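Notes from hallway chat w/ T.B., transcribed later so I don't forget. T.B. wanted the structure written out for a chain they're using in a teaching module, and asked if we could keep both sequence and structure tokens in one place. Agreed to drop them here.
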Amino acid sequence: MTNVLAAFDALLGVLRVAFFALAAVLVVVTAADWLVRTRRLNPFGPLARFFRQSIDPVFAPVERRVVRAGGSPAAAPWWGLAAVVLAGIIILSLLSFIRAQLLGAMFAVERGPMGLVRLLVAWTFEILQIALIVRVICSWVRVSPYSKWVRWSFVLTEPLLRPLRSIIPSLAMIDITPIVAFFILRILQSFLLSLL
């Protein structure tokens, strides 16, 4: 198991450096492409021709989405950079989360049956807390609760939130029950783990 954790640590180290290098290169490319697109650089110069031939086709899918959303085509490189940075943060966070769960499972196995019970209790509460976070983010970006990607979060959290909504009023059209449920889950998790 320590070999798996060492491999995860090595992978995380390589990915951190790779994403940082990719982001640094993309900052330069994005800034230059933006300068060409906004005509701050000579649009007929060799740099502009190079960007139109080799870089703009890479940003074309992003540009189509930006234009469909009502944005400026000149902003497409910046949105592409933001997507790469966000993807890097998500991938590194997920891998760090998986590493932490593997480490927790390793310690639970070493402690025997009671360690496994503690691990299952902790994982149950963490899944519920992740479901609450996903549900809140989906409400910000207006994802349908019936989408196959987020339906699980609504199924898991609705039994928690429905009773809270009857007790806690909304604050100026803001539903604070997910925040309250999150803190209740944290307190309940700490209490149960202290009993085990």
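Follow-up for T.B.: The two ends are 25 Å apart (CA to CA). Might be a good example for the class.
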